[in-house]
Design goal:
about 600 residues, alpha/beta, 6-stranded mixed sheet, 21 helices, about 20% strand
Length: about 600
């Protein structure tokens, strides 16, 4: 990441957030800049642009929606333009700034309003505009970036010292692990569902964890559970959770965070605000910081009047000029390329060797963000899982390369891993199936789906009962797989016991095709599941096909009406990872 301040005589380079969008952004920005220059020359020659002259009340209004953190700086630039009688088309430039949370406007723009209230939108991250684009909402054109701010970990002095500040530097995974492993540090963050800061921090945690082995998803989910306990709506909300003073009572208050994942600019604002409490010291991950990039977005520009387009161009130029950049730096922002002067860094809480010289990390894709939000949703929202496990004789077959362990043993171990990631508020249940397992029925409910923290009359928890039930799973000798009748019965039960406010799902684990000739049949099962499925009360069916004999094509037909998915798992020891990814994907599809 660049650390040089912007020379007063330079405008920030117009940048985009990723390649092919970057090329489009550069072309658009270049065209806008040339249009502004050409228009200015014509206006000067015709006497229509008297800089500093008085306004006569004849003005061109430009309505700009901006993220709340940058809105004060933009208002200062707009006020300077009004006071200085800056003009466009011979009329005074009247820019009205409205602070609006980016997630609220992203929701509104995603629905294609017929007459947008704003001509320009400056959210805190390009992620919001990309989300609108992915939803085919209001047409948006990103003309450049006007500012940026890296995402860091800020800590009150005593907590920073315990983490080795300023001398010790961390990678993202190390930093998150160090901050969440201490029961006394108490780290907070902005809600990823409502904040680009929180979402980008979660994305970096996930990406960094992915380089450390196969259990990255599990570690990310575990970190998300801890972080969710202390989330706030946004950066300003999360800084309000810090201690109000340096007293021991404030420091030891369990409701107060001592460390935060936040933007450098939010730390700058906190450290310069009177009466905000102890200043923050900052850690900058050395393997590349995520950053807010504050794009300058034209809203449905093809429908804008020509004078509005020129006013939008003029205001963007003012933000890029030396005076505009000085105002942005005075509010704690870096330029669009990430450059900042030493005063901004020092005031925000950075000291050598913080920040590191690492460049910004690649931003996550829309698909990666959807998966992350699915994981966040099912991690922080209580989950209701009913797991249906094949107990036919074939599950006793040893798996090559696994030291003689059977499919059932490996599947059982993976399900125990899944159970370990659940909280006491999650619901979990277990069924098993094999032909004629319980008289004429092919299935049996081993443990009802219930809250893991609930206790029975002996004081044992439902989690204890589930653990014992999973440990006891063994294949039934000389039996086949009664797949279709079992699936229908389990899905009917999951639908009738649906729990609102939780992520409900049915998980089916099998290594066989249906072997009950007297069952409902595939066509009948699919038709019945189509009748039962309710998008307003979704229960996705997730089918995990173990080994080469599982009927994957039939499973794909079975899961389709429920909004679920089918997955072949050649190595049963990896069932837990595949299941977690399937749940994350299903969670991303769920209603908001």
């Amino acid at each position: 990441m660049g650390r040089h301040s912007l020379p007063d005589g330079s405008a920030p380079a117009i940048t985009g957030s990723r390649t092919p969008a970057r090329r489009r952004t550069l072309v658009l920005a270049t065209g806008l800049a040339l249009a502004v220059v050409a228009g200015s020359v014509v206006a000067l020659r015709s006497g229509l642009l008297p800089f500093g002259g008085p306004c006569d009340g004849n003005s061109t209004r430009l309505d700009v929606a901006a993220a709340p953190d940058i809105a004060p700086a933009l208002e200062a630039v707009a006020r300077t333009a009004r006071d200085g009688a800056i003009r466009t088309d011979g009329k005074c430039l009247d820019v009205q700034i409205t602070a609006r949370a980016a997630h609220d406007l992203a929701d509104a723009f995603g629905q294609r309003p017929a007459d947008p209230e704003f001509q320009v939108w400056i959210p805190d991250s390009s992620l919001w505009a990309e989300r609108v684009g992915a939803e085919r909402g209001t047409p948006l054109t990103t003309a450049g970036t006007i500012a940026s701010s890296p995402i860091v970990l800020g800590a009150v002095p005593t907590a920073a010292t315990s983490l080795g500040w300023p001398a010790r530097t961390y990678r993202w995974a190390e930093l998150t692990r160090a901050a969440t492993s201490s029961g006394t540090l108490r780290m907070g963050m902005a809600d990823p569902a409502r904040s680009a800061t929180g979402l980008l921090a979660l994305a970096r945690t996930s990406a960094a964890g992915g380089k450390e082995g196969d259990d990255a998803d599990t570690r990310t989910a575990a970190a998300a559970k801890l972080l969710h306990q202390r989330v706030a709506d946004g950066d300003r909300g999360v800084t309000a959770t810090l201690p109000k003073d340096d007293s021991g009572a404030a420091r030891d208050n369990p409701s107060r965070n001592r460390a935060l994942l936040l933007s450098e600019q939010a730390a700058y604002a906190h450290n310069t605000e009177s009466g905000s409490g102890p200043s923050l010291d900052l850690f900058y991950p050395r393997d590349g910081a995520a950053r807010l990039d504050y794009p300058y977005v034209l809203v449905d520009d093809e429908e804008m009047r020509p004078e509005q387009t020129r006013a939008a161009n003029r205001f963007m130029t003012l933000l890029g000029e030396a005076a505009g950049q000085r105002i942005l730096r005075a509010h704690g922002f870096r330029d669009g390329n990430g450059g900042a002067d030493a005063r901004v860094i020092r005031t925000a809480g950075g000291r050598a060797p913080q920040p590191s010289a690492a460049g910004p990390a690649d931003p996550p894709t829309v698909r990666e963000l959807q998966a992350l939000m699915g994981m966040w949703t099912i991690t922080v929202q209580s989950t209701r899982l009913t797991t249906v496990v094949d107990a036919s004789a074939s599950m006793g077959a040893p798996v090559p390369g696994q030291g003689g362990r059977t499919r059932m043993q490996l599947a059982r171990n993976s399900l125990l891993q899944t159970l370990a990631t659940c909280t006491t508020d999650d619901d979990f249940g277990l069924w098993k199936f094999a032909t004629f397992l319980d008289g004429p029925r092919d299935y049996a409910e081993v443990a009802p789906t219930g809250r893991l923290g609930d206790r029975d009359t002996s004081g044992a928890t439902h989690r204890d009962a589930l653990t014992a039930a999973l440990d006891s799973l063994t294949p039934e000798a000389r039996s086949g797989a009664g797949l279709y009748d079992t699936t229908l019965a389990a899905y009917e039960k999951a639908r009738t016991t649906y729990a609102s406010g939780k992520f409900n799902a049915l998980v089916l684990v099998t290594d066989s095709a249906n072997e009950d000739a007297g069952s409902i049949g595939l066509d009948g099962l699919v038709a019945r599941l189509t009748e039962l499925a309710d998008p307003k009360r979704p229960v996705p069916l997730i089918a995990l096909a173990l080994g080469p004999d599982a009927d994957t094509s039939a499973l794909q037909r079975i899961v389709a009406p429920t909004g679920g998915s089918a997955h072949r798992v050649d190595d049963p020891s990896q069932l837990h990872r595949v299941l977690l990814k399937a749940i994350i994907t299903a969670g991303a599809k769920g209603p908001r």
